[in-house]
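User: For my dataset I need records formatted as: sequence, then structure tokens, nothing else. Please produce one.
Assistant:
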Amino acid sequence: MRDLVFGRDKDNPDFDFCLKNKSITFGRKLARKTKSGFVVLDRGHGACRLIKLIRGKVYTFDFTDFRGKTLKEDLLHRDFTINTLALRLEHFSAKKEDLKDLIIDYHKGMKDLKARVIRAVNNKAFIEDPLRILRAFSFSAVLNFKIDSLTLKLLRSQKRRLSGVSFERIRDELFKIFDQPMGVKYLKQLDNAGILRVIIPEIQRMRNIGQGPYHHLDVWQHTLESVRELELLFLEIRNNRRIVDYLDEIISSGRRRRQLLKLAALLHDIGKPASLRRQKGKIIFHGHERIGVTIGSDIVRRLKLSNGEWEALRKIILWHLRPGFLADNAIVTPRAIFRYFRDTKEEALSVLLLSLADQRATKGPLATKESRQRHEKLVASLVKQYFKKKDEKKPRRLLDGNELMRRFKLKPSPLIGKILSELEELQAIGRVRNKDQALRISAKIIRKENQQK
């Protein structure tokens, strides 16, 4: 109802219906008649859902029993006033001018909709369902509405209740914020309200950790700035169709690489506090990317992300420093470039984008204009090479494992993989072009291996 009044189109429309009772029975019968998918959401509250594909769009229809003796009492159990609007269906038509006389508005939802305000229906809203604490911010982000000050005060007082909510539900609301063009604004609001630390307590150690003269912000503020720079970068490249298609790729359950990359930006330096050392008066964070992978795995497990999402995040966190290291070299060799793409695989472009955002968020006195330009130039070059490699056919191997074992009378062992990996690299950079050269290199590697035994 809210979206209908507000004139907001959705990719996958959803409709909520209230019945006095027996919603599940009604929903099940309707599902059979309309050949829709059917699932019981909450048997205690008589809630069910129908899912129907109509002209390429997924429509969702939820049916729920009254949570009170009357509709007015039922609507008191909703989360926010803008979600208490109801519509009389007996005289309904799709003409917009007819809506005004049919709208039921017991709780001033229309007033808040026009004022673009998120306001809790009552003081028990967050006790009934603590996820609403996070939903206030996701609604604010999606609709670009402001959270009412009293509602903000109320949800702050109840924020600890979020720890009892399933992380699948928390994840879904968090990813709605990641899906917005400037979601960092709402991440900062969550942080200021003390809610983000309830969801991801690991961020607490990142606060007030100075980073030396290359940085102008502590670890946590730099992290938020990196997310901001990443979102600005997304806007900057929005007309590059190939990059946009890459970012919009679904990784799992409707979640896109674009959203996942923002989570990676939020976690990319989470290993810094544990790796902090002082060496000759300098602050160093040696190995923070590997520690970050370990910490990140715990967070991903809690959020119930898929194996594919974790593998992508792992690569991004682990290799986010690599482009910067390459940019520091006067000459970037073909071998170094090959190894970068070999290690980062499908996330090569994600790593490049995060690296660029990370570098742009680093503005300390030692972060020179020359180093910044060198970094930007390298990233631009590697982005081009990424798509070039995508378009190229991978060359056939000159030798395979069976032929290696037959030619050199070898048994199956890690040495076979080592030889094939070295040959693949040399072939990619043009150092090996035919089978004879491949055999000579293989023999050389085997001799070296035998000498080391």
